[in-house]
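Tokens for chain A. Residues wanted.
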């Protein structure tokens, strides 16, 4: 009987996700969905997910709070509802209210937020902690809620030397499990871009340059020197890619890699040099062996070396991702309604 009911609800129907999410909540899972997000999901308004590891571990205060809020505003400007996802007091929040967002952004007062990847979710919830969700963890909750698009800055990847250290971000695997379109500025060259792309190919994740060309961007610069198999700069086509995967019952997501806005590209080349220096330092001071601390350390060091130029560029490309994410999510909603 249950089986039949499930099949009477089309795969793309918002109700299907609501029932998935409701089932999880009915089991007592510690998840709260913000009223506005709940309403959007129920009535078929487009929603864009946003992460909070960026807030807790990616950007320094007070920029972190301002930027997270700005991203929500950019998403709203496209007619979509933002769903900023994080963990507060042992509960997953899909859509964070001001108080909780401020609490996560206040990184200098206890409780200290954990940087939450898949492996950390259950422990941080059971221990009633706070956490900023990485792309990996944000993908999980976005998929659970039926949110089709997630906009952010930099995807994790295979670290330089990853062939020996096996430091490969769980972000990559998660894209095989969550049917969500991830809009990002590619990956930072703190990582091994070539190996990351090879790994994504092995995992079967579509990598689409959101551009007229097939250049895979390297976060601070529009070109990494590596090519993507696909490209489009049309939000409708991007939405069709996601929708086609959905129709086929494919469970993986897709990566839309958006080059940094042109006016920041020149500065990006200078930032690039700081990135290389930070990576060399992390190798000589042993930081590169410190697991989940590696990425935040490198990001902070690059910001220091560039006197925050890297942060300005980071903000610009985050806003650009949020804008394009909103456009793709709107098109997706048009397709299914
Ligand atoms: N890259 C950035 N900025 C970030 C991150 C990555 O340029 O804030 C964050 C994202 O949340 C990403 C996580 O999911 O770091 C990856 O961490 P790790 O490499 O430990 O998997
Ligand atoms: Mn890692």
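Reply:
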């Amino acid at each position: 009987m249950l089986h039949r009911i499930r099949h009477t609800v089309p795969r793309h129907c918002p109700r299907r996700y609501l029932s998935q999410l409701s089932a999880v909540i009915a089991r007592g899972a510690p998840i709260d969905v913000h009223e506005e997000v709940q309403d959007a999901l129920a009535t078929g308004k487009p929603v864009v997910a946003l992460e909070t590891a960026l807030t807790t571990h990616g950007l320094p205060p007070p920029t972190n709070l301002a930027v997270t809020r700005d991203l929500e505003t950019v998403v709203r400007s496209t007619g979509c509802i933002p769903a900023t996802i994080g963990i507060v007091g042992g509960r997953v929040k899909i859509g964070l209210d001001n108080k909780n967002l401020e609490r996560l952004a206040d990184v200098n007062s206890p409780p200290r937020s954990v940087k939450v990847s898949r492996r950390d979710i259950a422990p941080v919830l059971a221990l009633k902690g706070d956490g900023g969700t990485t792309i990996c963890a944000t993908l999980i909750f976005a998929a659970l809620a039926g949110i089709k698009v997630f906009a952010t800055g930099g995807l994790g990847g295979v670290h330089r030397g990853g062939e020996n250290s096996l430091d490969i971000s769980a972000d990559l695997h998660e894209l095989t499990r969550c049917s969500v379109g991830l809009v990002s500025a590619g990956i930072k060259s703190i990582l091994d871009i070539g190996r990351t792309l090879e790994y994504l190919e092995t995992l079967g994740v579509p990598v689409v340059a959101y551009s007229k060309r097939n250049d895979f961007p390297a976060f601070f610069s529009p070109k990494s020197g590596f090519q993507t198999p696909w490209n489009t700069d049309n939000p409708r086509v991007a939405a069709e890619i996601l929708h086609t995967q959905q129709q086929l019952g494919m469970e993986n997501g897709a990566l839309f890699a958006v080059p940094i806005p042109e006016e920041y590209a020149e500065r990006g080349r200078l930032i690039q040099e700081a990135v290389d220096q930070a990576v060399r330092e992390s190798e000589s001071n042993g930081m590169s062996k410190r697991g989940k601390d590696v990425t935040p350390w490198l990001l902070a060091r690059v910001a220091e070396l560039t006197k925050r130029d890297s942060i300005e560029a980071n903000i610009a490309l985050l806003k650009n991702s949020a804008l394009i994410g909103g456009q793709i999510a709107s098109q997706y909603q048009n397709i299914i309604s």
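The chain is about 50% helix and 10% strand. The CA atoms of residues 205 and 254 lie 6 Å apart.
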